[in-house]
Amino acid sequence: MRPTPLGALAFDRLPTDLHFVRSHFGVPTVDPVGWTLQVGGAVRRPRSYPLSELRLRQRRTQDVVLECAGHRRNEFRPTATGLQWGVGAVSEARWTGVPLSEVLEEVSPTERACEVLIEGCDRGPHRSSSGMVTFARSIPLARALVGDVLLAWRMNGRRIPPKHGAPLRVIVPGSYGVASVKWVRRITVLEHAFAGPFQTDDYQLNDTSLQELKVNSLIVEPADGALLPAGTINVYGAAWSGREGIASVEIRHAGGRWRQAALNVPRQPTALHHWSANLELPPGEHRVEARARSGSGAYQPKHADWNPLGYANNSVHGVDIRVLGSIS
């Protein structure tokens, strides 16, 4: 795993090299020349799509936040199982590809079709099996047909790097990063619920498969533990949610009254929403907190619901800072 440096979330455009990396298995060795996507299952016209053909189609580009479901897992008490992510398992990138809906419409799902299974070509061990398993996740067919789910081959204007899923990956805007399967080799339309290990054993919250992102925000500046001169304290941060975007961000200090921050609304609701605010704080130690409200009206909670796998921590984020007295 490799997190995104917290300060990088303040950038208007996050460099590809700073995008967080999370893979369940090693990066597979693939040959992009001749790469073909197989699409079948509960469809009337199964077919193969050479990557070269997909690249000739009308493209769609979207700014999308990807967040690991285990982001900020290390804040849960008692400790939850899994990689002990702190802040940083969230990033934004500009993805380019062809809408998955176009491909699905061409293969014509049956009337009983309900899910779309997406398989990568990465394999490895899993506690649920004595053998090797393929990384695979499904999303509802209705979600796949919306038009914003991409079969992407470009990231920030260039071909996707191998560690981020080249030559082809799926991008599911507004969902946890696990849905955006990398190194995609096969898509299968199903007439039943998928029960693979990364669907029913992992990435479950209250017996429900994780899908839509929860509203979240982070204070980017000042950093936790910062020593600041007396005067106006500039506070910056980033917020994100599912497809509904962010409606507002508020900050407070010392557990006092919440006050609204200035919000920079991006062109697309699935991108990072940057925000800023100023505080006048006296010398001393202070706790500064931020919370976001989604377009559907959901607030970040003071404490996220604990769960044994440590998923979806969207609790109010705070930093402890110290304001120094003025120098006479």
Polypeptide structure, described:
- The chain is mainly beta.
- It folds into two domains: 6-209, Alpha-Beta Complex (Sulfite Oxidase, Chain A, domain 2), CATH 3.90.420.10; 216-323, Immunoglobulin-like.
- Helix content is 6%, strand content 39%.
- The protein contains four helices and 21 strands.
- The chain has a five-stranded mixed β-sheet.
- Strand 7 and strand 8 (158-159) form a beta hairpin.
- The chain is elongated, with a radius of gyration of 21 Å.
Shape: elongated
Helix content: under 10%
Fold-level CATH name of the largest domain: Sulfite Oxidase, Chain A, domain 2
User: What is the assembly state of the chains in this entry?
Assistant: single chain
Q: CA-to-CA gap between the ends?
A: 48 Å
Count helical runs. Answer: 4
Main beta sheet: 5 strands, mixed
